[in-house]
Amino acid sequence: MNALPREFSLIERYFRPLAGPGALALTDDVALLRPPPGLDLVLSADAMVGGVHVLLDDPPDLVARKLLRVNLSDLAAKGAAPLGYLLTIAAPAATPDAWFASFAAGLAEDQHLFGLSLLGGDMTSTSGPFSLSLTILGTVPPGQAVLRKGAADGHGVFVSGTIGDAALGLDVLQGRLADPDGHLVRRYRLPTPRLGLKLADFAAAAMDISDGLVQDLGHLCRLGGVAAEIDTALVPRSEAACAAGPQWLSRCLTGGDDYELLLAVPPAAEDRLAAAVARSGIPLSRIGRFVPGPPAVRVRGPDGQPMHFARPGWSHF
Amino acid sequence: MNALPREFSLIERYFRPLAGPGALALTDDVALLRPPPGLDLVLSADAMVGGVHVLLDDPPDLVARKLLRVNLSDLAAKGAAPLGYLLTIAAPAATPDAWFASFAAGLAEDQHLFGLSLLGGDMTSTSGPFSLSLTILGTVPPGQAVLRKGAADGHGVFVSGTIGDAALGLDVLQGRLADPDGHLVRRYRLPTPRLGLKLADFAAAAMDISDGLVQDLGHLCRLGGVAAEIDTALVPRSEAACAAGPQWLSRCLTGGDDYELLLAVPPAAEDRLAAAVARSGIPLSRIGRFVPGPPAVRVRGPDGQPMHFARPGWSHF
After folding, report:
1. Which residues of chain B neighbour A29 with C-beta distances below 8 Å?
2. Torsion on CA atoms A234, A238, A241, A244, rounded to nearest 10
């Protein structure tokens, strides 16, 4: 019998070891899943393209981990727990084995860290840069998923972690900024999905920040039919981001790739939020509030004056 | 408030109308699905790249329908029923609105035909050709999914429809072959997922033929630990494929893109298969049988002699 073509040996060597329950060892057309009874399924799909979301020469293991974490961040923003994922890879035919080996090693590391496994996927060639797509499945108790819709007048605007590091990290990699201790680049290459919070206990609306704080906050406003006011003095920024200087503030607020949580929290729930912060160790900061009025995001700058932005966030088109 | 960037207006205009239950109108990070109780979930993901799986100038509505049907064919090959899908699109930033309009119109048509809807996805730019990825979800009664593993000595080898049309259709589009009535090109551009058969009633193993009959039959052999013998005189070919002449036979058997069913059927189940054919109108033909021996596919040519192939099917790498 003919030897199997390289496509199959790549799958067998690098991806089969990642396959979990239901994946049928990646030997079938499909994965089979008996859904955990009494839970809702949460599904999300994100694409990642070389030269767009990650640099073409980014280390493949970090590309893989970022792809997985970007999707895990979508689950985190609903208060869901990870279950499994499907992955499609379109890569140049000349991609060396070492690239796939490193890519799969990155997936293995994060599968172990976050407790999920590969269910299936597809691998194809392309004449363009590598183009990845990951569909993630998670679970949440029925009715406990926190949606983007739900922000109301009087709710506080909260974010997790620090804002702007990843956008500045890209600027570092592209030679526009220095990063003495590498913090910004690490944050660009490896976001931290904020899994493990029971968001339904305290958040009325939630999403993760992927396209820039100002633009993404606009989504919560639009769906809630409210405006938001935030104060840049309250927006948490890392030491490295602050050291870049005040001229980078605007970039931090609109640059994207943060994968931090953005929440609307009713005043009565702030105690429960504080308890969740204490329990989880995930920092959550109040940066402003939702107010009545047509959907709009108003940003108070360091001088107390309103800030305006050429574009509030990232768009591919 | 700033106008939303084009990415969001594309989603709103062309993709939101495709969103079904659980999709949250494509306004959230995720889709929410309460799994139908008492059924297993069947999941599959396939990628499709411009210039690889479809031609760059193929009509966008047919590209969309082929992408959906290729995934529906994976469900069909397990005896599963469609439920919904997630879609990621990486497209050149200069892609005109008309391309997206036509693409979405194709999806709308096939969603209606096959009874499923869009659950979510992502849209990004790429410097390369368009790169699509679709994850499909289906359902099957518990334990009723027919796997690739299960072929045994004495089972018949069956295929649905006709074999080789799509591969020849690509040859037509690339100027190597004539196609007076357009049948071959139609079969290349628009496969027919063979949904609706209760495969578990009569098939011991099943898959769909995507990479060429000979190569894909090799997968059933490998997983079953058996060999297969097929007779080219029994392999159903369309009038158009036969008219191309005997020199195209080998291409029909190895060219791929058929999206027809390939089944292992125990002799005792052939009556039930015949009844299913009569009920469904889906033609199934016996082309050979599984025999003892190490995994191998033996093909008897028109002259009664064994045929050999430079490569048994398609591989991307």
Report:
1. 44, 74, 77-78, 148, 207-208
2. 100
Is A315 within 8 Å of B7 when comparing Cβ atoms?
A: yes
Residue A316 clears pLDDT 70, i.e. is over it: no
How many domains, chain A? 2
Per-residue pLDDT band at A1 (split at 50, 70, 90): very low
- A122 in Cβ contact with A88 (< 8 Å): yes
The answer to whether B316 contacts A125, with C-beta atoms less than 8 Å apart, is yes
- In terms of domains, do B130 and B184 share one? no
Domain extent at residue A284: 156-307
Cα separation, A226 vs B19, in Å, equals 25
Pick the residue from chain B with its C-alpha nearest to A146.
Answer: B28
pLDDT digits (tens, 9 = 90+) for A237-288: 999 999 999 999 999 999 999 999 999 999 999 999 999 999 999 999 999 9
Residue B151 lies in a domain: no
Q: How confident is the model at residue A163 (pLDDT cuts 50, 70, 90)?
A: very high
Which class for B35: exposed (0-12), middle (13-18), buried (19 or more C-beta within 10 A)? buried
Judgement on whether residues B167 and B295 belong to the same structural domain of the protein? yes
Please choose, from the candidates B82, B216, B149, B143, the residue with its C-alpha nearest in 3D space to the C-alpha of residue A25. Answer: B149
Closest chain B CA to residue A126: B49
CB-side exposure of B188: number of CA atoms within 13 Å? 24
DSSP state of B79: T
Instruction: Flag whether A100 is in a domain.
Output: yes
Q: For this complex, say whether ipTM is above 0.95.
A: no
Decide if B43 and A33 are in contact by the 8 Å CB cutoff. yes
- For residue B173, the SS3 value is helix
Closest CA to B317 of A14, A20, A63: A14
A94 and A172 belong to one structural domain: no
pTM: 0.93
| Contact flag B315-A7 (C-beta cutoff 8 Å) | yes
Average pLDDT value for chain B? 94
